[in-house]
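Researcher: Going back to the complex we discussed earlier. I've cleaned up the inputs and rechecked each line, so this should be the final set. Can you rerun the prediction on the complete assembly and write out the structure?
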Amino acid sequence: MDTPLWQKHWFDRRAPFADECRQARDSLLTDLKQPALAQQRVLADVVDMSAGSVHWRERGYDVVADDHRRFRSVLPVMRYDDFVPEIQHETRTKGGTLTCSPVLRWLKTSGTTGAPKLVPYTLHWLLTYRIPAMKAMWGTYLEYHPELLAHPYATLDTQTVREDVFDFVHGIGHQAISNRHPRVNSRDWNPPWYESPWFGPEVPSSHEGRMYHRIRNLVGKELHYISSINPSTLISLRDLLAEHRDQLVDDVRSGTLEGRPYARPDVAGARRLEEALSRPEFTLTDVWPSLTLYTCWLSASAGLYASKLDAIFPGVDRLPFMSCGTEGVTTIPVDDSLHSQPLAVSQAFFEFVPASVPLGELLETGEPVPTLLFDEVEPGQDYHLIMTQGNGLYRLWTGDVYHVDRVVDGTPWIHFVHRDGVFHSFTGEKLTESQVASAVQRGLATEGLGLGLYMCGPRWSEPPYYDVVAEVPEPSPRLDRALSRAVDSALHEINIEYASKRDSGRLGAPEVATVPRDAIAAYVESHRQAGNTTQYKYRPFQRDVDFVTALTGR
Amino acid sequence: MIETKRPPQNTRREIAALPVDGTELALHLWRPRGQVKGAVFYFHGLQSHAGWLWEVGPQFADNDVAFYVLDRRGSGISGGDRQDLPDVDTVVRDYLTAVAHVRREIGDAVPLSLFGHCLGGSFMAALMHHPEFTTRYDAAIFCSAWLGRLHATLDEEQRRALAAETSLELWDAGLKSEDFTDEVRHRHFIDHDDLAVRALTHRSRGVLLGLEELYVRPRKPLPPVPAAYVSGARDPIIDLDDARVAFRRMTGANGALLQYPTDKHYLFYTDVRSRLVDWASTFTLIQGVDRDV
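Model: Rerun complete. Updated structure for the full complex:
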């Protein structure tokens, strides 16, 4: 039988892809040993690409071309919204306004005002930064798990998708960074599985439909590796296997995909699958005993999925996804460290501000903000991240707070802690997501339990207080009461303003409600919206308490 | 010449400010990051501007050809009154300045083609025949070009009346996106492009007539450079027969006709875009071959 075209592509691309990834990783490793040189190179490149732009000329920023050391004193720290007028101009010119590279796409991500952002995706950024970052990360994965390229069915990649684009801004596609369709040119992202039948634009674009096609194509195959950005996608994969068990078994037995002819009927395979899925606690290794690796975000709130992932991937290795957003890449994994990665010094020009500095307020009032460079940060401290990317968005305050774990060969190894501004304050206590996470973790520890998924939101009452819902193995009113006391006590220690407000009666005691394992995961999954499902995130800190009623009926 | 075995290259996209008579004009450029082996100066039509060429510019640049587009006074992001052409001298001077600027920038050794689309072809023909236009160019491409239309359709009395026109009332060109392309994405763009010029003052039509005069009754011969008239098999906006007659009259033995299999007006928004850019790149680069070396 002839080899299908998608498999020909797979075999053609396997060796070059592995080679490209290895080279990209080697380049990154070299840069990590000479971070100052790498940062100088990035800054020089950014200045070279932007000094001649309309915006830099109009503002006089082009003086930096003669002396790169003036970069931080001449250009202001920016928020995305500060760029909006220039971005609107750039939508008309498609390059030349913020930076001297053609804009190929507008990347879509959620904005603070509800209107999706437009992040410029330029040819220079694609070729020099974004694609090399992807390849370097996959270089690490391949270094540790070369079997992911063992054969055409070895890898299920859910971190990128290929979807037709129907949203355009003045003629140019507006799409998620994870959507790598259509391919810009032969240097664009092109893994061996790019033409695989479960990867292309012909697959349904809904999360559930796409996931079913992935499962159907790979069930019964020797799958080694599942790649994801968010852990919730992996949980969802397991949930959908359970939900669509009967249909899947029927499809395998009949050799169909959603009822249409697809492959040879496989009665024995269907029986094995039915057996594997019949146990309520089935794991993904029951379905694919060949699994050796999964990857996804493992830090911050994503880390709360750890016990669930352990449960569905028993004995399977894991590696982390890079720290990144639509706006750019911050860290890239270079080894099997799970919770810390090196600052990606070849990806952007990075600046830091101690997390204790109210950066948002300073920017609001237009006050100058002194920043630290990569070699001025200290292990053990948290920092706001400011980055200048090669797409024209310079000195962008990302809103992300990172913790510096250590410094290796001059390069900081960091991990994402939380989004700045993700806090609630009834009376000035400014309770942050990480503070609540610590308090819930301490509370559960007093009961001998580990931290899993939880949600927290503000309850407006007399006095106001915080509602917390947490997953535990065996929920009970007794546990609710004990955890409420323990979380309150922990927050007293963690946040002195909270303690002050509690002691003066301006804040009520938190109420913790326990729910069974997977209740929150299911609730979160039910809110996965159509479109951009690949980057869908679980957010523990909520703006309201709607989740309480949904989860507890209270 | 074009390297036939290399991956796609990084390219640059720049917008230079070109001050002419106190107005800042936008000169757009897509160029290779490496050596510029050829250059194209593009004259856009009535409605369009450089912002329409986001797919074309990078492809020229990837072919090692620097692609320049002047947003005409009052068009695109250039300064100047919109929907109004000032006068023949100003229009010609803007182009004289811009093309001379480009020649200085690329140097004498790089072949330069002029490329006029639709009404831009008429501006280009006027410039080529203007006595003060002395900048060397190496090839000329008229694409779906509007050539000699007013002379072909108006009698002498009507032309005299039009030349004396001073009205600032707007004349709607009646352009419809479905005549330009049948691609939904591009039609949506054309229909919603807030920089597009879709109407002109009546007196501006008199200026168009004056520009036509420059090449319908030429005062100087054209240099013996190769020229081509490129179009679809049919064009819903241009009378191709009339336009080709005007083209042949201008270019004589140096002219060639090229036809692509489309019946839409804006070839760059059809399936033939890529082939047209590659052909125009080759047509430009080949002029740089030096047989005397």
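Model: Worth noting: Chain A is about 40% helix and 20% strand.
Researcher: Good, that matches what I expected from the previous run.
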